[in-house]
Amino acid sequence: MRNFVKFTTPFVAFILLCTACKNEDVLVKGTPAHLTAVTSAINDKALVNAENDSKNWLSYGLNYSENRFSQLEEISEENVDKLGLVWSYDLNSIRGVEATPVVIDGIMYVTAPWSIVHAIDTRTGEQIWSYDPKVPRETGIKACCDVVNRGVALYKGKVFFASLDGRLIALDAATGTKVWEQVTLDTTKNYTITGAPRVFKGRVIIGNGGAEYGVRGYITAYDSESGEQAWRWYSVPGNPDDAYEQPELEMAAKTWDPSGKYWELGGGGTMWDAMAYDPELNLMYVGVGNGSPWNRRLRSPGGGDNLFLSSIVALDPDDGSYKWHYQGTPGDHWDYTATQSLILADLEIEGSKRKVIMQAPKNGFFFVIDRTNGEFISAQNFVDVNWAKGYDENGRPMEIEEAEYKSGAYEAIPGPNGAHNWHPMSYNPNTGLVYIPAQGIPVVFEDDPNWVANSAASGGFMSGTGWNTGGLMSAVPPQSATFGHLLAWDPVKQKAAWKVDHIGPWNGGTLSTAGNLVFQGSADGRFLAYNATNGDKLWEVPVGSGVVAAPVTYEVDGRQYVSIAAGWGGSYGMSAHHTESQSPGKIYTFSLEGKTPMPALEIPEPKPIVSGVAYNPKDIGAGTKLYISYCAMCHGVPAVGNGGNIPNLGYSDKVKIENLKNFVLTDALKELGMPNFSGKLTEDDVTKIQAFIQGTADAVSAQLAASK
Fold first, then answer.
1. Which single residue of 92, 126, 192, 209 could bond 272 by disulfide (Cβ 3.0 to 4.6 Å)?
2. pLDDT higher than threshold 60 for residue 20
């Protein structure tokens, strides 16, 4: 029966399948036959045509341009306030939810934390199937920024996704059974995958993460039918004594100082998220990540641009051959990745139509680049920055000397969480605006004079878990404010059109529509709609959890729906949150006909600051270094803030802190992703960490008492 459905449109597939089969129920919506028919029709032509048809959401960014602009307009600025809940679906997770669902004829495919895939019937909100790749929970220690997954790709009857531990898996879209699986990385190294794959011309493209841990970045294409590797492209050069895998790596190596033995440090340059494709030019674009270590004086002591770090690179999707690059942050020194959203558009600039690629990466500048050849067009800061004065006419940043943090404390603006992180932005060609989840999370850097690669010896931030920053997070408090806002940016004028302030950073990705709307979830647990022209808030609903993912919209049986995957987490969200409610991850789906009551908010009882744990005050200093090296990224500062989706230890029960070794040095919490640090920490080390936790908690309690 499968031979009857390999046609260019779902409609043709339906007709032929019905003609070929006497069973009148064969195409009942949501059945395996229906799923086979509609997903088998997702081929190259269908994916290219997604630029012109928004009834389905066929790929991560909606279409190959990744503009996340829907042409649906049933829901508009005039009636969006009538939106109501149709259904909600429990993802059964308390970790970060970053996925963008894909939807074809009412069938939704979405991933949850730990790389679990769900197929959902959007007509009912009921599960069709789920697939758990059984990621070993000890993999969590390799994931810098939560055990998240951003989504799947659909192509010719298969669902493709990557697991956190580095497997690319193809599932039968109708049944969820595994078709093939490929291990895409060296499992002895600290690689992970959190991004969504893309499919270009029958190739499934996937990158990886892990630059914080000293790995070498690359992106790989696999044949969608067989799973065989088609090509691989490395973003940074390897050992110069070996043959370079690609001719351009010889050129790139000249921008690295070999005295730093960068190849032994990994080099970084992981490509963990951003991709786009222009079928007319037959060019795919990928954003390259930060260096390893962050501190460029350690990986390349003599300086240099360190290609292709923090660059946009254009490749031929047929063979992975290099075409051009543009490097936004030469010699990146601050974890300013270029792995944030890439959007393709045709803009009129100075009287000429230009084919451009747009990006608002971590470094705080909005870039417009010619996507035919990589020529720099313009860049302007969309938030305050203090590492560069701007960009010259050749597209190079004019760096500020103090930003080198050679000696003493330096507050990086933006910080390593970026002025805009992975949270997708969208572009509305009707308004001409790009909608950016902009933010500021200040961090103060210091040089690490005692740095040793892959060692906790320096006491550097998270160095005990293998992080290779080459810098210290200073005890000097930052002076700039933490913030988050929705920013509407004019890419031609290179200036803001409007902005909406949020309670804090780490707000969700955006969706724009022909109904003159912008949808976004917020860090304080709301899902909102704004007027795309002026930013007026038109609708909001509480969803019980901070939202970091981006929403989608689609049409089913003539009705427009909007869905959002809600669930707080990610690098910032692990240790901080902005809402009292702590609901588990859910999918919420809305329409103008929705009448279902929203689920009740789950607001836990506030926990008191821990007290009464005996400790030696002399251990606090050593405990501070150990805590920063092993615990801070996930658990935050004890009793400072209210924690994120991972508990703040300053609010733990006394008995848990007294028995901390039973959690830290065993597999007791393995299934929750808590590493076993036996062999890395001793019982005496844990005693010192206990001193830091209780000592800090006591200091916070004293400050609170004095302020009353």
1. 209
2. no
